[in-house]
Amino acid sequence: MVARATIKYCESIGDEVVAVTRQEMDISMRWAIREVFEREKFDAVINCAAYTDVDGAETNEKECFEANASGVENLALFAKKYNCGFVTISTDFVFDGIYKGFYTQRDTPKPLGFYGNCKLQGEFLARNAYARSIIVRSGWIYGAGGTNFLSVMDNLLADGKKIKAIYDSFGTPTFGNDLAKRLRELAELDLPAIYHVTNSGEGTSYAGFAGKVCELRGYDLNLLERASAESLKRPAPRPQSSKMACLFSERFGLEPLPHWEDALKEFLNADQADQADCRR
Is 115 a catalytic residue? Predict the structure, then answer.
């Protein structure tokens, strides 16, 4: 999802984009990375590869670690060897979620589950391998082609399906298109650091996000069933509140991303336009 959005944005501003699939370059295999880097001579690499099944990570540890930790290190090592910029995506799940305010780079990560632990290890490994690494922590990412709850919620509600929306877990929603633009900006800025990238605003709960979708689309609020996070009995622990803010993006000339409600409106309008085109 994020890769497709990033490809689209970079091409729209005239970049020559090489989009490598998992089949073409398995980042757990250094020989595969070497072949691609040697052939393409990249100016910058934006790593959108990830294992994002938070619950599945509790049992599929090898796959999660290779995608989110050792694979990130491999990319950083070859970015260093070929002297190109390197941007990789981490997660809000590196925090334990006990703090109810906004997590910044001053806060010490303390992941709760295996997924968050692997992403945090990926941060450490990338920075140790290549001092030029740029780490982008984001969370609650949604967008076109996404399969997560935030991305498919609109389609479920449009079909009249009832959904359970958690009211006691909080985060800062991030529209994939906005994240893609910021990833490209950071690649050009080339200032190594950890950045927190989310849409602006005070954040919300899953129930709040769903309620805003209903408001914008005119759906029946009775389709929403409020549920506690604990009641879903999911295998992996999750932070109760993982809202994030960046300490220094604006100091580097990076404007705040649009408010999450405005970004959601843009996403829904674009999705509606795409559906209308399909019906023609």
Answer: yes
Cite the DSSP H helix spans in the chain: 2-12, 30-40, 61-65, 71-81, 114-129, 149-158, 176-189, 206-217, 260-279
* Bridging pattern class, strands 194-196 and 44-47: unpaired
- DSSP secondary structure letters along 63-81: HHHIIIIIHHHHHHHHHHH
Distances (CA, A) of 46 to 19, 75, 78, 229, 276: 10, 10, 13, 33, 32
pLDDT digits (tens, 9 = 90+) for 134-168: 999 999 999 999 999 999 999 999 999 999 999 99
Contact 192, 79 (CB under 8 A): no
Sketch out the chain's domains with CATH numbers: 2-279 (3.40.50.720)
Pairing state between β 204-205 and 170-171: antiparallel
Residue 2: helix, strand or coil by DSSP?
A: helix
Map residue 195 onto helix, strand or coil: strand
Q: What pTM does this model have?
A: 0.94
pLDDT tens string 36-83? 999 999 999 999 999 999 999 999 999 999 999 999 999 999 999 999
Tell me which of 115, 130, 206, 219 is the catalytic residue. 115
Structure tokens at 17: 């984009």
Residues 6+ apart with CB under 8 A from 114: 57, 58, 61, 64, 236
